[in-house]
Design brief:
The protein is an all-alpha fold. Helices cover 50% and strands 0% of the residues. It is elongated.
């Protein structure tokens, strides 16, 4: 029930989510340390963007991850609105250009 309520809260606050604020929170709480500054992933944490998981799945993962995966962040540490802002930041990260789109790599 708590997970469902968190998902509803996250979904209802998603319309007001702010990607700029989300990036600040992402750095402030240390997400970058394992997932990279651009959420590209690293040896310590998986890629989160581009194309992040749905907001409710991200919130559930953040709240309920086993400590062997990543430290869980309670609502006291990271509120639902902050999780929504982080998700908005992850959604805002664009895919890098393909090799074909880079003149230096596509020009024989």
């Amino acid at each position: 029930a708590a997970r469902a309520a968190a998902g509803v809260l996250l979904a209802s606050s998603a319309f007001a989510a702010d990607p700029t604020k989300g990036k600040e929170i992402y750095v402030k709480v240390g997400c970058y340390a394992c997932h990279g500054y651009d959420a590209q992933g690293a040896s310590t944490g998986p890629k989160l963007a581009p194309d992040p998981m749905p907001a409710d799945a991200l919130a559930n993962y953040i709240r309920n991850s086993g400590t062997n995966m990543m430290p869980p962040y309670s609502e006291k540490v990271l509120g639902d609105a902050e999780v929504a802002d982080i998700h908005a930041y992850l959604v805002s990260i664009k895919k890098p250009p393909s090799a074909k789109e880079l003149p230096l790599l596509s020009n024989p």
